[in-house]
Amino acid sequence: MTGKFCFAIDRGGTFTDVYARCPNGKVKVLKLLSVDPTHYKDAPTEGIRRVLEQEMGNEYCGNGPIKTSEIDWIRMGTTVATNALLERKGERMALAITKGFHDLLHIGNQTRPDIFDLKVTCPDVLYEEVIEIEERIIPKQDFDKEEEEWEEVIGTTKESLYIVQKINIEDTFQKLRTTYEKGITSLSVLFIHSYMYPEHELIVKKIAEKVGFKHVSLSSYVMPMIKAVPRGFTACSDAYLTPTIKKYLEACNIIIRKRASCHLEFKLKKEKGDRGSEGFRSGFVDELRDVNVLFMQSDGGLTQMNSFNGSRAILSGPAGGVVGYAMTAYKAMQGQAIIGFDMGGTSTDVSRYAGKYEHVFESTTAGITIQAPQLDINTVAAGGGSCLFFRSGMFVVGPESAGAHPGPACYKKGGPLAVTDANLILGRLLPQYFPKIFGKKENEPLDRNASLKAIKKIGLEISSHPSQKGKTMTPEEIAFGFICVANESMCRPIRALTQAKGYDTSHHALAVFGGAGGQHACAIAHALGMSKIFVHKYAGILSAFGMALADVVHEVQEPCAKRLVPEEEKYLASRLQNLASKSREALLKQGFSNENIICEPFLNLRYEGTDFALMCTLNNEVNFSVNAFKNEFSQRYQNEFGFIIKDRMILVDDVRVRGIGKSFIDTNETFEKVEEDPVPDSVTDIYFENGYQKSKVFLFEKLKPGHVIEGPSIIIDKLSTILVEPGCVATITDERNIMIDVGKQKKDKLGTELNTIQLSIFAHRFMSLAEQMGRSLQRTSISTNIKERLDFSCAVFGPDGGLVSNAPHIPVHLGAMQETVQYQLNTIGNSLKDGDVILTNHPSAGGSHLPDLTVITPVFRRECNKPVFYVASRGHHADIGGITPGSMPPNSTSIFEEGAVFMSFKLVEGGEFQEKKLIEHLMEPGNIPGSSGSRNLMDNISDLKAQVAANRKGIQLVNELIDYYGLEVVQAYMKYIQDSAECAVRDLLKDVGMKMKKKTGKSELFAEDRMDDGSVIQLHTIINENAGEAIFDFSKTGPEVWGNCNAPRAITMSALIYCLRSLGCLEPISVTIPKGCLLNPSPEAAVVGGNVQTSQRVVDVILKAFEACAASQGCMNNVTFGDETFGYYETVAGGSGAGPSWHGRSGVHTHMTNTRITDPEILERRYPIILKRFTLNPETGGFGANRGGDGVIRELRFRKKMTLSILTERRVYAPYGLNGGENGARGQNLLIRRSGKDTFRLESPGGGGYGAVLGKRRKESKEEGNSKKFCASNIRGSVFDFTKSQESA
Question: Which residues form a coiled coil (predicted)?
Answer without folding.
Answer: none
